[in-house]
Amino acid sequence: VTGENFDQSPLRRTFKSKVLAHYPQNIEWNPFDQDAVNMLCMPKGLSFRTQTDNRDPQLHSFIITREDGSRTYGFVLTFYEEVTSKQICTAMQTLYQMHNAEQYSSVCASSSCSMDSLASSIDEGDATSLAKLQRYNSYDISRDTLYVSKCICLITPLPFMQACKKFLIQLYKAVTSQQPPPLPLESYIHNILYEVPLPPPGRSLKFYGVYEPIICQRPGPNELPLSDYPLREVFELLGLENLVQVFTCVLLEMQILLYSQ
Question: Where is the chain membrane-spanning (predicted)?
Fold first, then answer.
């Protein structure tokens, strides 16, 4: 378990994650920083879900800035896959049994009662909320399906967000599809790592993903830097007034801090 979140129910806790595999193993001009990538891919740690929880894939990006000022960009697709290990499922069940026992004992201690008189001594609101908590926030190995978070990530020298997003989504569909893609998955990964070149400045590049072609464009020497992030999302997240205020702060060269979950 990561962090001080033992008071949370087991399905709301976060657990330590690790890098399962990365390709290629080593690049001289861009060494793989396992700890940084692991932390930035799963900033909150490994998480579990059941069939009742939302498990829609989520995409986020990050930047690694090195001491010399060089930047590396990461694009991450987080999804949930079914836990097939009986040992992990049993461990989750045990965690819930311990958690429920602690809940009962803490409620009982606060109301100075015995387990037999628990229902009658705590007020109706507490009893109702406790019952709801255990019904909606529980795990039964014989009834529930357990899922765990997993990431696939592309690390690039330039922030080609849209191209990376489309490739990761296509790769995810290929992994989860009932019908396998035309070629083995390794072929698509090898293609994007070793065969798709970086487009020259001022040029666009079209390459093939798993199912559909993907286009990325690189600005010319006298054009604005590459900004592949959709402005519409910025307006939706911040709102017009806040965005005008941020832009004003930029023009006045003020320090800006954006804080978010």
Answer: none
Closest CA to 48 of 82, 4, 8: 82
Do residues 16 and 48 make contact, with C-beta atoms less than 8 angstroms apart?
no
For the chain, the maximum distance between any two Cα atoms, rounded to a whole number of angstroms, is: 78
Domain assignments of the chain as residue spans, ordered by start: 10-85+144-252
CB 149 within 8 A of CB 56: no
Report helix angle 86-110 to 124-136, nearest 10.
Answer: 170
Q: Which amino acid is at 151?
A: C
Predicted TM-score (pTM) of the model is 0.78
Q: What is the pLDDT along the chain (261 residues), one digit of tens a residue?
A: 555 556 678 888 889 999 999 988 877 777 788 899 999 999 989 999 999 888 999 999 999 988 888 889 999 999 999 999 999 998 988 888 888 777 767 666 665 555 454 444 445 555 555 555 555 557 888 889 999 999 999 999 899 999 999 999 999 999 888 888 889 889 999 999 999 998 999 999 999 999 999 999 999 988 988 888 888 988 999 999 999 999 999 999 999 998 877
CB 167 within 8 A of CB 175: no
Contact 35, 127 (CB under 8 A): no
CA distances from 48 to 60, 133, 149 (A): 19, 17, 6
Taking the CA atoms of residue 106, residue 110, residue 114 and residue 120 in that order, the dihedral angle to the nearest 10 degrees is -110
